[in-house]
Each structure stands twice: as structure tokens, then as C-alpha cells.
Amino acid sequence: MNEIININYSSDRPTVLGRELHDMLEVKTPYAKWFSRMCEYGFSENVDYMTVVKNVLRVDGTEMPQTQTDHQLTIPMAKEICMLQRTERGKECRQYFIRIEEEWNSPDAIMQRALQIANSRVEKLRGENQILLEQNTAMQPKALFADSVCASSTSILIGELAKILKQNGVATGQNKLFAWMRDNGYLIRRKGADYNMPTQRSMEMQLFEIKETVVTHADGHTSINKTTKVTGKGQVYFVNKLCAGV
Q1: 20 pLDDT above the threshold of 90
Q2: Which run of H or E residues covers position 79?
Q3: Is 209:229 a contact under the CB 8 Å cutoff?
Q4: Number of domains, the chain
Q5: Closest C-alpha to 72, from 96, 102, 52, 97
Q6: Distances, alpha carbon 70 to alpha carbons 1, 124, 240, in Å
Q7: Strands (DSSP E) along 10-75, which ranges?
Q8: Where is the Antirepressor protein C-terminal domain (predicted)?
Q9: Looking at residue 148, what is its pLDDT?
């Protein structure tokens, strides 16, 4: 079918620009006044037409652009406007729009649009699934770590926890991790016999346990060394807490 006026198929239904129809119908009345008069026949904005504003060059030839109001008309509205003109050109355009409607509503066209919508949804889901896959891949090392630790009852030294954190992207070392735990209330910070021992709060949270070792000295006397160790629950807690921003 020969195209006598440009049809826009970018939305959910075909439309035609009001100014192009105005020119095609060879209407002498200025567009704004003509379109306003056409709307008096009961056409509604956002139902029968959409208002669009675009930049155009001035008619005086200057490079300064100016805005121009136009309208995207539905084919039924354009068809009725053609009928209202009572001219041969109006009749020709109306017949053209009737054929556009017939093509748009044909079974083949409907099937094609349905396939396009389905393909679009598939692509959207594919993109969403790819994002989820990437997120799961990024979280997998931490998840595997948490699962393995939860299944284990082995406690580790704070220095060993620092190595695990470093492997998960946290820039820390043993001394730095000790300092962070003291500053954040997990270890006792006051100097003395309890220095670097777990606070009451962290013990209640079951983040640490204290390993006591009996040491026999050369002169025969014995003493007890206390070592702070991070429980399996504590390992998961600190990895999740410190890796959250990584």
C-alpha cells in the first residue's frame, strides 16, 4: 500500500501527526485554530490524541529554535477528521486510514505484536536473571564459608580470622583487627590482665570462647595462659559484618 502520510507505530497503537494531516488535507486555516475547532467534535486528550512539543527552526531563517505544539492522533480520530472535511482529499485520506486499521487488526499483525511482546518479556526476564546470577556468584564464596563454618565447631585465632577477611576483600591484618574489635566493644581495651579478652556482651553473643592452657615452668610452678578464640558463630558474624561494604 502506498504511504500518503507517515504512520507512527512506536506506541501501542498507530498514530499520525496532526500537522502532517493538516498539510495533507490542504487546510487553509492555521493549524492551532483548526485543531481547536476539530476538538469541539468531542475528541479527548490522552484518549484520542496526545500533545507533543518539539523544537523547530524559525521561519525567518535564524538558527534560534522555537517550540511548536503538535499532536499524535489515533487513526480513528484522523479518520473522523477526514470525513468532516467533505473534500476529495479528505475522502482519499479516510480510505487510506481505513486500510491502515484493517492491516493493524489483521490476524497476522495481531500475532506479530503478540510475539514481539512475548520476546520483550523474555529479554527482560533474561536480563533480570543475569543480574541475579551475577549477585549469587559474587555471594557464593561468602555463602560457602558461612555454610562450612556453621557445620563446624572449630574456633580459630583472631589472626586466622584476619586472613579469612583479607581473602574476602577486607583490607585488614591481625593487629588492625584486634584494634577494631577493641574500638567496637568486642574486646576489653583497658590495659591489665583482661586486655584483649572478650567483653561480657560479645561472650553473651557467643562470638568468642577463651582457651585456657596450663603452662609448667622450669622451677616447677604452673600458670594459666588465656587465649581468645573466635567461635564458628563469631566467624560468620564478623565476615558478614565486615564484608558488607566490600
Answers
A1: yes
A2: helix 75-85
A3: yes
A4: 2
A5: 52
A6: 26, 33, 57
A7: 15-17, 49-57, 65-74
A8: 135-242
A9: 44
